[in-house]
Write a structure and sequence with these properties.
Length: about 230
């Protein structure tokens, strides 16, 4: 397959730590290890939560990524396991083993201050994966199509709106777009500019999902007053 090039307009970027290029990249001599390392940076960046981790099953769930590791399922899984071992041995990933009802499960952290703190907390028994309420990456094949969501809940899909939705898919997690549309519907402000204002605010100021769920009434007022009031017809 020939790459057709990056699309025009706004594109969401994935931050990669500077030391990766100076210290890790010159040392990595295995393609699978490089692919798994870069994929982890991308996928963890699209998660929410103080501590972010990946399971082996998270890699396996992304069929498009796995197709790039091997010509068939068994060889791709073998390549993934080999790459995970290489990442751990090199020190890029930190692995912790957690007890499960049917055995044990390994979870992987990037070797960062937060990753090291998580590993230490797990070793002391002070932290468990379910405590952090991590929001996983939305898989493209599993999330609702935002074009359909817009047509069902906001209005007709014009060429200009379709372009705006395409840019939103690149800039924001799918779960954010879905939630912003839900907020617009609940507040009866069926306008893309309102949805876009919410998304922009979340990107600039951060979004605390757990806080929002605890105080839904305060959250509702926040989206119909103040900075968002300009998008609501009086």
């Amino acid at each position: 397959m020939t790459f057709k090039g990056f699309a025009e307009g706004k594109v969401r970027f994935t931050p990669v730590p500077g030391p990766f290029f100076r210290e890790l990249l010159p040392e990595i001599d295995h393609l699978g290890e490089l692919k798994v390392t870069l994929y982890a940076f991308w996928r963890l960046n699209r998660m929410e939560g103080v501590f972010r981790w990946l399971r082996r099953s998270d890699f396996l769930a992304d069929s498009e990524f796995m197709q790039g590791l091997g010509p068939d399922v068994s060889s791709a899984e073998a390549a993934l396991d080999d790459a995970l071992i290489r990442c751990e041995r090199r020190g890029t990933f930190l692995r912790a083993t957690l007890p499960q009802e049917d055995g044990e499960e390994s979870i992987y952290f990037i070797n960062s201050p937060k990753g090291r703190a998580a590993i230490q907390a797990i070793a002391r028994g002070d932290w468990r994966a379910e405590d952090d309420q991590q929001m996983p990456l939305e898989l493209i094949q599993d999330r609702p199509n935002i074009y359909r969501l817009y047509e069902e809940h906001i209005g007709p899909l014009t060429p200009m709106i379709a372009e705006a939705l395409r840019e939103a898919e690149e800039l924001y997690p799918g779960s954010w777009v879905e939630e912003a549309i839900r907020i617009a519907v609940e507040n009866n402000v069926r306008r893309w500019s309102y949805v876009e204002a919410i998304l922009s605010r979340w990107q600039e100021g951060g979004r605390d999902e757990r806080k929002d769920r605890r105080d839904s009434e305060k959250d509702r007022r926040r989206y119909i007053e103040g900075e968002f009031s300009d998008y609501i017809e009086q």
